[in-house]
Amino acid sequence: MKKNYATRTADQDFLPFAMVAQGLIVVLFACLSYVRQEMSSVIFYIALGGAIMISFVIYKVFESKYFANLLLILTLTSGFVYATVVILDPPSLMWCLTALPVLIGVCHYPRNLYLFVGLLSAAALVLFQQASLDHANSFSTSTTIQFLFVAAAIGIIAFNASNFRDKYLAKMEDLTSLVKKTEAEDSLTGLNTRRYVEAHLREKFLTTEKLANNFSVIIADVDNFRSINERYGHQTGDTVLCSLSDLFKTILADDYVFGRWDGNAFIIIIPHGDAEATLLIAEVLREKVSRAKLKAQGEILKLSCSLGIASNAKCSDSDDLLSHTENSLYQAKHMGGNTVIVS
C-alpha cells in the first residue's frame, strides 16, 4: 500500500494524538518509577518524554510531519529495546505494551508489520535467554509467555485497526476526489463546469485588478437546440453538444478556459482584452459551427450558434461581466441567431 493522500491524512489525525497520549503515559510511568525510587527508570522515561516533546515541537512549530513521525518512531523503538534488554522490570514491560500500538499506527503497512514482528522477536529472544540464565531480575518462562501473548494480541488488534483506518481514509479520499471532479468536470462533455468557470472568473478578476490586464468572455449558445431534441431525441442532442465541444477545442488555444455554461451553451475566457482578436475568434467559432456536418437519422443537421462577447474593462466585477456577456448573447438570439454581438 503506497503512502497516498489518505495515509498522509491519517498521519495528520493520528500523529499528534499519538505524541500527546504517549507523552502523558511516559509522565505517568516516570512518576511511578520515582515513587518506587527507581531513578534509572525515571531518567529513562524523562529521556523518552523529552524526545517526544521535541517531535511534537517539530510537528507543530516547524510543520515537518515527516521528521516528527520519524523521531517518534526512533524514540519508541529504541525505548522498547532498552526496556526489554536493560531495565527489564514489570513497569517497563507494561510501557512496552503501550508503545506497540502507537508504533504500528504511525508506521503504516508494510513497515508496521516488519517492525511489529522484529520487536516481538527481539523481546522473545531476550526474555527467554534471561529466563534460561536465571538472573535475579529475569522473569519466569510462564510470565514471559504471558507478556509475549498479550503483546501479540495488542499488536494484531492495532495492526488491523491501522489497516482499517487507512482503507477507510482511502475510500473517503476517493469519494472526495469524485465530488471535486463532479464539481469541476461536466459529465457529458468533459468540459469545465459552470461552477468551476465562475470560480476561475472571480479569481481572474481579482488578479487582473492587481495586474491591470484585461480579458474577454464569450458565451456561445446553439440555436434552435430544443427542436433538435424534439425531432431527433435527447441522445442526438447530447451527441451534438459533445461534437461541438470537440470542435471548439480544436480552435481554442490551450490557455483559454473553456467550459459548459448551460444546457446548450458554452463559455470561453479569452486571456486578453483585444476586442478585434476576440471578435475574430467568435466569428471563426460561428462559421465553424455553421459548416459542421453532423448526421442524425440519415439527415445532415443544420447547426448555428449565437455568441455574446464582453470585456472586463467595462465591468465592476465577475457578475457584472457575465451579465454583460449574457445580454450580448440575448441580443444575438433576438436578431435571429447565427450572430456575434459585442457588449
What would a concise description of this structure say?
The protein is 70% helix and 10% strand.
Question: What do you see in this structure?
Answer:
The protein is 70% helix and 10% strand. By secondary structure, the protein is an alpha+beta fold. The chain folds into two domains: 5-181, no CATH class; 194-342, Reverse transcriptase/Diguanylate cyclase domain (Alpha-Beta Plaits), CATH 3.30.70. It has a five-stranded mixed beta sheet with strand order 2-3-1-6-7, with helices on both faces. Helix 11 (318-334) links the parallel strand 6 (305-311) and strand 7 (340-342). The longest helix is centred in the middle third of the chain and has 44 residues, at 141-184. The radius of gyration is 34 Å and the shape is elongated. Mean pLDDT is 89; it is low at 1-10.
Strand and helix layout:
Layout: H1 5-35, H2 39-60, H3 65-87, H4 90-107, H5 111-133, H6 141-184, H7 194-211, E1 216-222, H8 225-232, H9 234-251, E2 257-260, E3 265-270, H10 275-291, E4 294-296, E5 299-301, E6 305-311, H11 318-334, E7 340-342
Helix pairs in contact: 1-2, 1-4, 1-6, 2-3, 3-4, 3-5, 4-5, 4-6, 5-6, 8-9, 9-10
